[in-house]
């Protein structure tokens, strides 16, 4: 089974902070809660994180909104819905995680905007591509049947050895419902599956099947190799290699923050509300900025003046030492 079907960023989608006014948001026998009251309370709890999210969304939409359209978001939503077993199953999963279809689409939009930003700002070197090519294994297509216990897996292997159809047994027995609907078939590259599954699968030749159940954290698998293509030349595989390298970078939160920070620093962000003034500090603080109060008072110097200053300080220290000796 794949390590993860979704990689999402947790956001408080759908929440809108109202503008300041005297309008009543709610009332009771105890009194009224105004929009001012509500705004101040929201600032104290989720204000900075929400403002950060809204700013990032606005800046990235301005840059990449022509690529990440409503149609693209809807298509991704449908893809994930299908992978999770249909509309009802998907809505149940979203409900358990606190999402509605609308605010989950907001999450998809933010992820796609970040993906476009990383693609735009990432320049892969020839050396990087060559190294990745050397380690590259082409995507393969295998079929598997996942069951909970080893005894059941062994019984299915016996049936297969006696001539049973793999796809039919997968459809009838596999706990991996997403692949079971397709006769157990799944296409994957190196690093996309759990280690035990991947090792057993890549050891097979086309048409071969595992003779013993393969145990993973998900249960017991019977695996059959369907298609195992040969590795192409560097030129033939370059597009695939670049996609894999970008996927790796998109899984690196530190790299994503580096990319987003660069974009935010060029966006001329001004936060008028002093209580929320630190909302973008994570993205706007640069290495050149002082880390301590002491460093903030020091003037930046080039290497040559620093050397001369050091020489002057050293000379002053020697004079002080001479004076102290004379005094003694």
From TrEMBL:
Entry-linked PANTHER family: FOLDASE PROTEIN PRSA, PEPTIDYLPROLYL ISOMERASE
Underlying gene: prsA
Protein biosynthesis in keyword set: no
InterPro entries for this protein: Foldase_PrsA, PPIase_dom_sf, PPIase_PpiC, PrsA_foldase, Trigger_fact/SurA_dom_sf
An annotated Gene Ontology molecular function: peptidyl-prolyl cis-trans isomerase activity
Domain PpiC: from-to ranges: 137-227
Pfam families xrefs: Rotamase
GO aspect biological process, one term: protein folding
Catalysed reactions, as listed in the record: [protein]-peptidylproline (omega=180) = [protein]-peptidylproline (omega=0)
Protein name: Foldase protein PrsA
Bilayer topology annotation: Lipid-anchor
Keyword entries, A-Z: Cell membrane, Isomerase, Lipoprotein, Membrane, Palmitate, Rotamase, Signal
């Amino acid at each position: 089974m794949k390590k993860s079907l979704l990689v999402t960023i947790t956001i408080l989608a759908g929440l809108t902070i109202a503008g300041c006014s005297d309008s009543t948001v709610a009332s009771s026998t105890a009194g009224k809660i105004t929009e001012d009251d509500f705004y101040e309370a929201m600032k104290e709890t989720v204000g900075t994180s929400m403002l950060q999210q809204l700013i990032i969304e606005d800046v990235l939409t301005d840059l990449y909104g022509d690529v990440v359209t409503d149609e693209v978001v809807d298509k991704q939503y449908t893809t994930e819905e299908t992978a999770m077993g249909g509309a009802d199953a998907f809505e149940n999963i979203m409900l358990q995680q606190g999402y509605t279809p609308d605010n989950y689409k907001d999450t998809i939009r933010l992820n796609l905007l970040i993906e476009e930003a990383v693609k735009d700002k990432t320049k892969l070197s020839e050396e990087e591509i060559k190294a990745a090519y050397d380690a590259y294994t082409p995507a393969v297509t295998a079929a598997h049947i996942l069951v909970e216990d080893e005894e059941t897996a062994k019984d299915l292997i016996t049936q297969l050895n006696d001539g049973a159809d793999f796809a039919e047994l997968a459809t009838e027995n596999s706990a991996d419902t997403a692949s079971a609907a397709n006769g157990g078939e799944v296409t994957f590259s190196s690093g996309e599956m759990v280690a035990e599954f991947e090792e057993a699968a890549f050891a097979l030749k086309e048409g071969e099947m595992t003779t013993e159940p393969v145990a993973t954290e998900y249960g017991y698998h019977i695996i059959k190799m369907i298609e195992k293509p040969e590795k192409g030349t560097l030129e033939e595989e370059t597009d695939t290699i670049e996609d894999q390298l970008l996927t790796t970078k998109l899984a690196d939160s530190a790299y994503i923050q580096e990319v987003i920070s660069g974009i935010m620093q060029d966006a001329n962000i001004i936060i008028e509300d002093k209580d929320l003034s630190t909302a973008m500090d994570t993205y706007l603080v640069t290495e050149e900025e002082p880390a301590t109060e002491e460093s903030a008072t020091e003037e930046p110097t080039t290497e040559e003046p620093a050397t001369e200053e050091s020489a002057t300080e050293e000379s002053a220290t020697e004079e002080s030492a001479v004076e102290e000796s004379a005094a003694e």
